[in-house]
Amino acid sequence: MNRYIFIFELESEKRFIVAQDRIRVFVEDGCWSFVGRLGGQQDLSLGEGCDAVRYAVSIAAHELGHAIGLFHTQSRYDRDRYITLYSYNVKPDWLDQFTKQSMATNNNYGIPYDWGGIMHYGATSATGNGEPTMVPTDTKYIETLGSPFVSFYELDMVNKHYKCHDKCPAAKSAKCKMDGFPHPRDCSRCICPSGYGGRLCDERPPGCGRVLKATAEYQTLTDVIGDRSAGTRAREDFKICNYWIEAPQGSRIEVKLVSFTAGVANDGCPYAGVEIKTHRDHKLTGYRMCAPEDAGVTFMSHSNIVPIITYNRMYETKTVLQYRFGVLSLKNISQKKNPIRFHRNNTQYFSWWRLRRFRRHGTEDYSAHLAPRRHGNEDHTAHLVLKLL
Q: Which residues form the active site (predicted)?
């Protein structure tokens, strides 16, 4: 359990110590937690199966997120602007996991909706009929829902709620780039959005990957990552590579997914995938994809740097991308979306990538409302291993 606690402790001012107000982690039926501090001893269950390698760290981190005050993302009061909820596809005894909060109960601290956080359910989570329970308004995010990673905005919200940012006066703290913020336990360095690193968030993160220079003609990036000998056994830890595609100042970058290895597609891309960050908002999780059917999906950046993050915790996967700069109009690039088919009941069906098994456990939205409420026995098929990018 200590390594699970470390995930939130690592990137905030909060430390988990034994005290009168404390969390008791124990084994009961399912994986669940109350939302926010109750006072005194507070229970958090990690029952049978919660520590399975296919879920591992992400379930524990998700439940700890509840304990420190985070709701499900899909329960935010403003969620209807970002997802379409198909409640008639949800198992009746799971509907409370999708209850929309009000502005009175849900303080998001001005932080925008992020489809890529660990507190967000997958598109088919809690389905009672195999059909999707929710679809993002930006359908290119369909595979991002159900993420195995804590998002930068979730870390930012926790730090804001507990006033950790106040530990670092602006005059004496690191001047973070790319919308990072000073680390509350070491104000001389920054906590960075995914895809950015270094003390000031102005460098490519260390490790595999490299800086690529875009030209006016298509160039190709081929990334191979993973363990060739692993078979279908999932590891706890991700291998992660970070690339930067750079272009001249004032230009934009077009990125097209050419191909991706078959066999790992699932809600949230929990085993392997590629994240492409083209938004103007550097803090927002990028688009994650992990299916061969994504081939041809094209993105246009809002700046002259595009971080590309590949990750894997199973057998070897290959990502092939093409990129170039100089295309300045979105009208000139393909707007192909993920392969979503509409049935007679107007429900999206993902024939190549629907979940066939569901395990129960707990989850909720990253809104730092501290009302005591128990959440558990939720559908977390897509919430797997968590490591901070």
A: 63
Residue 77, token pair as written in the block: 């009061």
Please state the pTM of the whole predicted model. Answer: 0.82
Per residue in 227-277, pLDDT tens? 887 777 788 889 999 999 999 998 999 999 999 999 999 999 999 999 999
DSSP one-letter string for 261-318: -SS---TT--SEEEEE--SS-TTS--EEE--GGGTT-EEE-SSSEEEEEEEESSS-EE
Residues that constitute the known binding site for Zn(2+): 62, 66, 72
Annotated binding site: which residue ranges? 62, 66, 72
Query: Given this model, what pLDDT does residue 350 score?
Result: 29
Domains delineated in the chain:
211-332 (2.60.120.290)
Please name which of 116, 112, 244 lies closest in space to residue 179, comparing C-alpha atoms: 112
Q: Calculate the CA 139 to chain-centre distance.
A: 15
Question: If DSSP codes are grouped into helix, strand and coil, which group holds residue 127?
Answer: strand
Percent of the chain whose predicted confidence (pLDDT) is above 70: 78
